[in-house]
Fold these 2 entries.
Entry 1:
Amino acid sequence: MTNSVAILGSTGSIGTQAIEVAQMHHLRVTALSANSSVDELVRQARVLRPELLCIADESRYSALKEAAAGLGCRLLAGMDGLCEIAQHSSTETLLNSVVGMVGLKPTLTGIAAGKPIALANKETLVAGGALVMKAAAEKNVPIYPIDSEHSAIFQCLRGNHAKQLKKIILTASGGPFFGKTKQELVHITVEEALNHPNWSMGAKITVDSATLMNKGLEFIEARWLFDLRPDQIEIVVHRQSVLHSAVVYNDESVIGQMGVPDMKIPIQYALLYPERLPCPTRPLSLTDYGTLTFAKPDFDTFDCLTACIKASERGGSAPCTANGANEAAVAAFLARKIPFLRIGELVNAALETLPVTELTCYEDVAAADRAARDFVAAQL
Ligand code: MG
């Protein structure tokens, strides 16, 4: 169990909950970073007094300097700042909860410096899973998943032999548009897409949940984290988000992890591993729920999910292409430049059009990511 944590993406939904967990268990917070929210970042720094404070958006550095004057923190900016935190001597565990492929370099830097990673940045594994897992194995660095599904699987694998695992059941809430046809999704607005039934999250991941791209990214993430073949992952829609995922062993025994839908549980498991201490969340009352439901996903309507599975089967740069195209398409949707269904069309078109290449270093990943974003930009 760690004594302190450096948090990348501290003003986001995962970051703020990670701070709550850290405070409850008296973990020192040694570094904080935000993308552009200077005021919120400095508010956190006043309370936590970290050694390092970083603003990823370099244009906000002077604003940070002004707001953080007298706090005694070393101030950093940009990708260099994020990577400096990742490898700093004061960093004991690195919690990476930045959004998007931008999180990859800090993750690789942290691993190279031998820092255990609490990973909430799923795009890191989608775009550069091969590099991340290879580096982590070489350095013998543990990666503790903070995605609720992957934390569930991680927990269900404890005390058993991974060799005897038959498959995993990755649960999906289905998002706000479960049961709808493509026709009914033609005029979906940004506001409707941002209204998730169970989880309160940032805008990008909430849109990803509405398109089921999020489940597609998690499919790829699970492959890397648990060394699975695509045919070993079954996606099941479970509307209540109580069973956070399950594993099936060779003897057909199914072990699942349940709890209320609250990210503080997986965050705490990642930070306190292997300890289980009281968590600032609600207890699960199964009788309050009464009924739990399970259904097959609609792969035709939610074509982002299908794209990710296809990309995962193709391997190489294909998952990185799907992710890069999605990041660009979601940004365009949130800026009201394209309709909702266009996101899936663009992700699939990028996969059909762009070549699959091998990813052997960070630059390869960055190039494939760039090509996917450029492809989407050219279609707008
Ligand atoms: Mg998840």
Entry 2:
Amino acid sequence: MCLFCKIVEKEIPSNLVMENDEFYAFHDINPKAPVHVLVIPKIHVDSFNELTGEMMKNMTSFIQEVALKTDIKEAGYRVITNVGDNGGQEVKHLHWHVLGGAKLKWGHFSDANAKDFF
Ligand code: 5GP
Ligand code: ZN
């Protein structure tokens, strides 16, 4: 069982934000912003590459509720999912990073010259 499946099963403790039948939201152990919540499907999905529209259907409103509950919805926030090696995905169970609580920086994503690609 993967790390996040163990968190869903409560075999590994986590700081819960909210959950329903399909999804689980908990605070990131190494927060990158004042609010840094991870939202995951309760069933194991490797990454965004394996996500279907059907599975995504209720995730949108769940993430919006997380933003409301953590009091970042009005001021603004960022939703990110890292995919695979180049995306920097460390945990191979699909998760959305929900980040907010302060003005976020827009990162330096790659040393490759982006202009070479268009
Ligand atoms: P990734 O790099 O895969 O997009 O993000 C994985 C995230 O999971 C990281 O931000 C990391 O801090 C977080 N993380 C890793 N292990 C644990 C854990 O055991 N508990 C919690 N709450 N977060 C974790
Ligand atoms: Zn899993």
